[in-house]
């Protein structure tokens, strides 16, 4: 497995070693010792799986208490995946990184606690799977708007307007968000 820190170095792009043969392929998708060496010591307590159609945009989500680190990947289709640094003491506070994750590159993104996370589906269908370091806690969940102008995220132009959940349509700005009230 190859671990590549991105422009925000705590966000790490992971490329698995894929063993193809006449039966198909095999790859390790998580190995605690290697993950710890490159990304830090975390334990995962919840695994999630969502399916979305083209143009669906989920995010940008975070929890003001019990922040979740997420190890994310795509097992079908493709998404443009985005992590926004909302750790108020961070030199990269308010900065974002984005990568295409798809079933071909099989890459994974490590999004540490203290980041808002979201993705935009660029294929007809996308299956998105991820491990979380803390439990879902809806009472602490917040959403920053995907098109928040202070973030200026360059989402890909796929000719389809983003389709958002009701909750995500009510996303707030970076500064309206409650993050300043927390220890993120
Ligand atoms: C996230 C989540 C949702 N749910 C339920 C609540 C709701 O009824 C239904 C759909 O929830 P949501 O609309 O919040 O799902 P979704 O918009 O896919 O939320 C996810 O978005 C991506 C970008 C993330 O980063 C994740 O952490 C998570 O916030 O599933 C759980 O039971 N457990 C969970 O961990």
TrEMBL record:
InterPro entries hit by this protein: RmlC-like (IPR000888), RmlC-like_jellyroll (IPR014710), RmlC_Cupin_sf (IPR011051)
Gene3D superfamilies linked: Jelly Rolls
Catalytic activity entry: dTDP-4-dehydro-6-deoxy-alpha-D-glucose = dTDP-4-dehydro-beta-L-rhamnose
Record EC number: 5.1.3.13
Pathway: Carbohydrate biosynthesis; dTDP-L-rhamnose biosynthesis
GO molecular function: dTDP-4-dehydrorhamnose 3,5-epimerase activity
A Pfam family reported for this protein in Swiss-Prot or TrEMBL: dTDP_sugar_isom
TM ranges: none
Protein family according to the UniProt entry: Belongs to the dTDP-4-dehydrorhamnose 3,5-epimerase family.
Subunit composition and interactions: Homodimer.
Descriptive protein name: dTDP-4-dehydrorhamnose 3,5-epimerase
Organism: Marinobacterium aestuariivivens
Taxonomic lineage: Bacteria, Pseudomonadati, Pseudomonadota, Gammaproteobacteria, Oceanospirillales
């Amino acid at each position: 497995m190859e671990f590549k820190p991105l422009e925000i170095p705590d966000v790490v792009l992971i490329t698995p070693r894929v063993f193809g043969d006449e039966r198909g392929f095999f790859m390790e998708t998580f190995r605690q010792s290697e993950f710890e060496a490159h990304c830090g010591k975390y334990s995962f307590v919840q695994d999630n799986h969502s399916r979305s159609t083209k143009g669906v945009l989920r995010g940008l989500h975070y929890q003001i208490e019990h922040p979740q680190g997420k190890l994310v990947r795509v097992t079908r289709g493709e998404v443009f995946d985005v992590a926004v640094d909302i750790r108020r003491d961070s030199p990269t506070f308010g900065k974002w990184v984005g990568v295409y994750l798809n079933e071909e590159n099989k890459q994974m993104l490590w999004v540490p606690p203290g980041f808002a996370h979201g993705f935009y589906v660029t294929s007809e269908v996308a299956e998105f799977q991820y491990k979380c370091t803390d439990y879902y806690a809806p009472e602490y969940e917040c959403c920053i708007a995907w098109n928040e102008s202070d973030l200026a995220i360059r989402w890909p132009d796929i000719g389809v307007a983003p389709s958002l959940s009701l909750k995500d349509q009510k996303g707030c700005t970076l500064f309206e968000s409650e993050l300043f009230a927390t220890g993120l």
